Hints:
Blueprint: H1 3-71, H2 78-81, H3 83-97, E1 101-106, H4 119-130, E2 137-143, E3 146-156, H5 162-165, H6 173-179, E4 192-201, H7 202-254, H8 272-321, H9 327-378, H10 382-413, H11 418-431, H12 433-465, E5 473-475, H13 477-492, E6 496-501, E7 508-510, H14 512-529, E8 534-543, E9 546-553, H15 560-563, H16 583-593, E10 597-603, E11 607-615
Helix pairs in contact: 1-3, 1-7, 7-9, 8-9, 9-10, 10-12, 13-14, 14-16
Amino acid sequence: xxxxxxxxxxxxxxxxxxxxxxxxxxxxxxxxxxxxxxxxxxxxxxxxxxxxxxxxxxxxxxxxxxxxxxxxxxxxxxxxxxxxxxxxxxxxxxxxxxxxxxxxxxxxxxxxxxxxxxxxxxxxxxxxxxxxxxxxxxxxxxxxxxxxxxxxxxxxxxxxxxxxxxxxxxxxxxxxxxxxxxxxxxxxxxxxxxxxxxxxxxxxxxxxxxxxxxxxxxxxxxxxxxxxxxxxxxxxxxxxxxxxxxxxxxxxxxxxxxxxxxxxxxxxxxxxxxxxxxxxxxxxxxxxxxxxxxxxxxxxxxxxxxxxxxxxxxxxxxxxxxxxxxxxxxxxxxxxxxxxxxxxxxxxxxxxxxxxxxxxxxxxxxxxxxxxxxxxxxxxxxxxxxxxxxxxxxxxxxxxxxxxxxxxxxxxxxxxxxxxxxxxxxxxxxxxxxxxxxxxxxxxxxxxxxxxxxxxxxxxxxxxxxxxxxxxxxxxxxxxxxxxxxxxxxxxxxxxxxxxxxxxxxxxxxxxxxxxxxxxxxxxxxxxxxxxxxxxxxxxxxxxxxxxxxxxxxxxxxxxxxxxxxxxxxxxxxxxxxxxxxxxxxxxxxxxxxxxxxxxxxxxxxxxxxxxxxxxxxxxxx
Length: 622
């Protein structure tokens, strides 16, 4: 496996993970932005309401008494003495500059018909009647068919309001002439008269939310791109480029001829890849030592053959000198010569066979070792780790044998003369045999611990990335559905009764983990669609080379206009913060990737059915 393919597989893990994290952060950002914008607009409404109340208070406590002192009792000028009139007139000037804002005085018996309470304002009046100590209430209202977010403040009967709002007989003539003797009268002390309503257009709030959402998406996209670039740059610098250098080194060694020197790898660090390179260097040193030992053994055999040849020649010369001896002596010498020649031929043949076996063994060991290491780096790190671990176990046994031999040698040396024992003791001390044997055991233990650590790291990486499942696998979709149900059962068991109607299904080549994701999305949506206790039915069938999985619920159903947009990315009917709108879009892409189709059938009041149709794909099929 080349580094580029490793990068692609890692990308298959990191990119969906980053997209998932990006979606979570984006949802959280949108929720916080929504809360912030609503709080900011509420603060604006509170400020406007405070201005309104301050104006009314100022008119009632400062302006009106001074005008009454000038005009005399029982006189009333609404334009200057009515706090409601003045506050509304001032606010009308303000809303000409801020058209999205609105001020209204809502009452069940208003003097101005425009101030008659709407159903939403009736709810506010009812709230203040039920909660006499409440100072404000907020909610949505409709004004001329458009939604507004409003802040309400109760206006109750006070001493300053007695003249104008209790008995018409006490009211000024100007007030009666303008509004009559019914509207706005007959209130008692402390009674709720009306609400001061300050509102802002919901369209303005939605515009602010849209602007904040676009800004958040752009910032998150830029941050995600930067993270991706950093991850893949670091991965290439720390891992892939080094693996590529090792792979080229192994390829160069495998292309060398017999007897060529195996050059060591350069090691500069202390991580797992450097540990693997050190193990390769130690293995290369062992191969070189074994090769030298075989060569020395062959040279010794050649010298023995030469000595035999010299002996044969000497005997032949002796035969020539004794030619005149008796026939029996000649026969004996001739027989002896034949035996020596046969022995020589046998030794020569054994020598030739030994050289051939040695050459084949060296080449086989070299190619096997290099092939295993190259395959381990190129395909899966587990193989060289297992090979090194096995060699370390063997080396541990060899070290134990060396220690046993040294101990036996020390025991035998006790029988030697004193000078010889002293010489051997000095040699052992000079060679530091005690330290070497102890350190050898320690080195073997450390290497074994290192290989165990590498194997554990590789296992953890495989479990996290699910590399073993990136290829097509033969799977039965009934088993996939059972695995999925075990995952989402907590979501289903409190909302629905599960009915399973599985048919006989053939195995098909697919990506089981991805199909499990499709089934998870559909089943969770079905559970969320059920308001109270309902039923979810799963049916599977195989006909004419196609597998059909039908997942139905008896929820309220999906309207036609929503059904057309179900598979659009980011489209959701859930509340803010409860859905991303990506589940069914991703499911649609996974089914299409498998060459299948996903359809929705729904009837209002009856429920919804998702149909997933997949072609049966057999191993070896195109």
